Records
---
Amino acid sequence: MERSVNMKKRKGVMAKRFLSFYLFALLLFLTSCFGSKLASSGGGEVTGTGGRAFSEPTPYGMTLIKRGHLKMGIEAQDSLWGKQTPIRDISVDGFWMDETEVTNSKYRQFVNYVRDSILRERLAELDETYRTVKTDKDGEEIGTQLNWKKALPRKPSEDEQEIIDGLYVTNPVTGEKMLDASQLNYRYEVYDYTTAALRRNRLNPEERNLNTDIAVNPNEEVWISKDTAYIDDEGKIVRETINRQLTGPWDFLNTYIINIYPDTTCWVNDFPNADNETYMRYYFSNPAYNDYPVVGVTWEQANAFCAWRTEYLLKGLGPAARYVQRYRLPTEAEWEYAARGKEQNEFPWDNEDVASGRGCFFANFKPDNGNYTKDGNLITSRVGIYASNTNGLFDMAGNVAEWTSTIYTEAGVEAMNDINPQLRYNAAIEDPYRLKKKSVRGGSWKDPESYIRSAWRSSEYQNQPRSYIGFRCVRSLANTVSEKTKSSKKK
């Protein structure tokens, strides 16, 4: 009897302890759910919300260019330049930039991706497993997408082989089977956040003008321009810039379809009466040139590469993808700021000479009239064989000139803002050809010394491929808070 009473007492004590533990755990749960600051702020004071900051990892093959100031242009004009270059003090935010120019190997990965995506699209008509269901964040089905986990057939059936063969053509002279470059079209979309943010494009008419002295016209029509593209019944790309009345946020989504295969014939067309057939046939396709900069790529194709690189990145990031900025071409100001290095030198190195005292050149260019080989190269060279500038960037002078995102005007930086300056214009097909000039920077393997200075400006039409123009990508920082601000907060 006494033993049973003791057992009851023990059970009562254990029950009380369990209840106390339960209440304590519940308190911790509620605190974690609603935040400790709510309870500890005291007196109803506003203390701000917390949260974990996104720490952006260094993108592969890129280097950080920290924010800073630049006197853009050339202060000391000389007869070599032939024309005045606009000068202005500007400031740019930090960004990531490719350490080297985009190589044949990296661009060929883009070509192979487009090729394989076309094959999967066509094979999906025979085998639906080449597609998977696409869902939104709530798990609702919103369509289908290509299934990249399913490998292409190693031993294709007769029907599969017919589809695969449809992407190739036969050389009428050699009988060699070749990839049909005309079919390698890449479709991508870009949302124009800047145009969508303009006050005149607000969906609510009352928000388009903050001046309360002006009566609001609720029936006012707003017209916008957007780029669109499609494939017609004959398989040709049709690109249009359409004007339409603003109806909703999707009006700022621009669609592009670009044939992305480099124009290898530029080696012949750029140099009449020269025997450059070898470069035309093998420069892009031969693995010996894997680490050489890709050329024969138009400004439009370079933008398509940036869009694909963004898509390729975002697939593997998960929730962090919403913070990461898209890859793009650098602005003209960003390019010059990065090329000059930390000391803002005239060349990407620390003196005005183009070679050391021992005769070793600092870049791949044309040192003398007709003597391309004086610097050890005839055409392009492998990326990164010359020393980097103080920003860790290679070949910012010579090798190949590089596309920027900025339109080319004689006014240059004078027509831009002095903070993150940019002049952007996506020329429509029907626009005059003179409006399709883009700024090109850095000079190339075929240019003399004066053209490879960091401030030298040249131009090319956006649809014109050249054997001496390539590109590199940049990416705005997901977090632009300065190191000084971070350190002051820690204190």
---
Amino acid sequence: MGDVHSFRYKDLYLVLDVESNCLHAVDELAFEAIDLLNKGLSWSQCCQSLAKYYAEADVENVLTELKTLVEKGMLFSKKMSEIDGEEKLVKALCLHVAHACNLRCQYCFADAGSFGEDQFLMTLEVGQKAIDFLLEASGERRHCEVDFFGGEPLLNFDAVKKLTRYGYQKARKKGKIIQFTLTTNAVLMNEEAVRFLKANNFQVILSLDGRPEVHDTMRYDGRGRGSHAAALSGVRRFLDGSVENNYYIRGTFTAQNLDFSNDIRYLVEQGFKRISLEPVVAPPDQSYALKEEHLARLKKEYEMVADLYLQKAQEDQPFEFFHFNIDLERGPCLVKRLSGCGAGKEYLAITPHGEIYPCHQFVGQRQFLMGNVLLENSFRFLPESSFPAAGPLVGECRQCWARYHCGGGCRANAYFVNGDLKRPYALGCSLQKKRLECALYIKAKRHLEAEDQ
């Protein structure tokens, strides 16, 4: 039989059919029946086992309903086939317009934004070559994306403005649509930046870790002063009462704030409606690193976030939590579900010097250098030997019930934690699965509540 994931969350018995993505809220009898079938018992063996504890007629009715779901491909459905010969077309660039930063965040993977080199800003020539490269390498794709990144991209705001106009003009000539995003610590978010970003339909990622004392512990300037007040002011300046869905508040939690549900509550109380709070990935010798011993506490915190999510929805004050956004009806397409992380294929990073890497986290790792936009015809996709295929159907991910929702996880995390691109980061996997269970519970709970109204 195909894979299912059965779990009890508070008052609900839930079953996710892994291959079809169908979610079922069932009673205790059906839950036990599915568990026995999943362990390999035949229908008749399952019936005999359950009849010891339940009325025979009830058991037969439940098994009949389950057989109907199986016949419809909604339970124990067949495993997807791998997709061979997928064409590699670049879809998005992470454009490092500034290898420099005005902050010195303690957990920064990019060495204060410089990525281990002298601080440097991207020139207009390099940025234009990068956009030309994207429009060419995207082939027949009509939609392309560019994320202005750093360091702090607002340190090179003049280039951001000019490259945005250049990108729109070039895309229009090629009959393509280009979407721009910008990831910023918000400290330099002034009125000019706000006007420009909104006028050009930017999606903006605004870094804010939560409560002032939490944020200031990890995110401070070159003189050791906390940046929360300045960042919050910049975030408010950008939002300015807006109800648009053109932003995410993106924070990081560490071992210093294991009670991170309180940071999400703080952000919600500030009126922010779109929130993403990510677990730090750090060497285990760092005081702020998350460890296996923290796992039980972190899982409980995610449940508290789920409770807050449902509470605010009932109070007609809903907010989005990035990791609870799942679409079981439409969801990602088959190719996307099977291909996993797009790093090194659909998604690339370009440094201020024009160098091309699989993603922003691999920048500076010379063994993963893929070319340079300043050198004609230098770009090459990395061979399987140095950047092996990954995704939900590779290695240990094949057996994981959450494989189609995480796509095999982050390649960079796998590499930097385990030294192996195909071996997923175990702690990250555990947190991902807990977030997904919370999201499935929310989905089922809201659906059942809507049916009762």
---
Amino acid sequence: MAKKKKNRGRLIIVSAPSGSGKSTIVNWLMQEHPELRLAFSISCTSRAPRGQEKNGVEYFFLTPEEFRAKIERDEFLEYEEVYNDRFYGTLKEQVVRQQEAGQNVVFDVDVKGGINIKKHYGDEALSLFIQPPSVEELRRRLLGRATDTPEAIEERLAKAEYEMTFATQFDRILVNDDLDVAKAEAFSIVSEFLNKK
């Protein structure tokens, strides 16, 4: 049996309803705390690259046929067909590669993806659910962004309410009421997990 490498990276799953501040908190951790050695898991997608996106950097770009073949071979940790022939997923092998490079792999995934990854890795992964203090506050934030139609906002709120029912399936719940407090709490939770023997 292979000996476990001492510098093998750990796994951190972060999920949240849209508008909860997840990306802001995760990006802050990555930029302000390089000592945490955090790196996003690089997912696969069957959509075409956008703008300056490069294969193997933002995503691994596959054809729908290549994606389906990998599904058949059970190569994904989790995947989803968002639209017809538009797949997104995380390759098991890619996670292992990043861990062996000493990276602590961050999964910025939807709630169901987060639960599935946690089931796969168990105690080897930390699952963190970031939620707004209330649905009313989330509505205020989404309206403040001014990026969605009223219909889209209502859809996001309905989805958020549903996603919040899964919060207890995560190891830790972080309520983002005050962004600076939430950032500090996230740093504390992640550091504690990474420093565990």
---
Amino acid sequence: MDDSTYPELPTPALLFDLDGTLIDSVYQHVIAWRSALSSVGIDLSVWRIHRRIGMSGGLFVSALLRETGVSLTGDEIEELQKIHAKAYLAQLGTVRPLPGAGDLLALLTDEGVPWAIATSGRAETARSALGLLGLPENTPMITRDQVKHAKPNPDLFLAAAARLNIDPRHTMVVGDSVWDLLAARRAGSLGIGMMSGGYGREELERAGAFRVYRDPLDMLTRLDELGLRLAI
């Protein structure tokens, strides 16, 4: 059968998580959450906090409170998230782009590959990353403020795909946590894992990643593995 009888599918889009995927900020978030939790008398080891990074803030807090047996009201949880945001912004000067992140996004743009950022962070903390990455203010970015539920629900990635006007089934989600990959599966997208957020290759693969890279630079040098038709 002639190939022309098949409909031409759109170029797959890439939907990027932010923290630990494009910028080296996971541990700043961990320290900010530890500071916020300490302010209400909850003392947790940083490794326990790290395992929850990538979830929505509300779900993150609820999960940790369940583990500790502490009870907070909805207003107190909201205030806790504000304390976290303030503590994170105080460390913003230590946050850096991950190796290759800017070059990867620039290449995708030059090659006409659609992409967007979808993060569980709220706009007040997430949008500062645009300048770090050398991106314009109109960069397609979906933040926690714009959806009903964040990861591991698929809302962020569904909204990002809609922003690009692309069916989620024609997207690949790039993230550093198991929560990103779980959300990707629920959105019907392929998952790509990044080890730059602290999760290991096996964990990311078990969560559904069909490719795993060390960081954006590693992905940039091996883009052919994703089946993208590029001129390079």
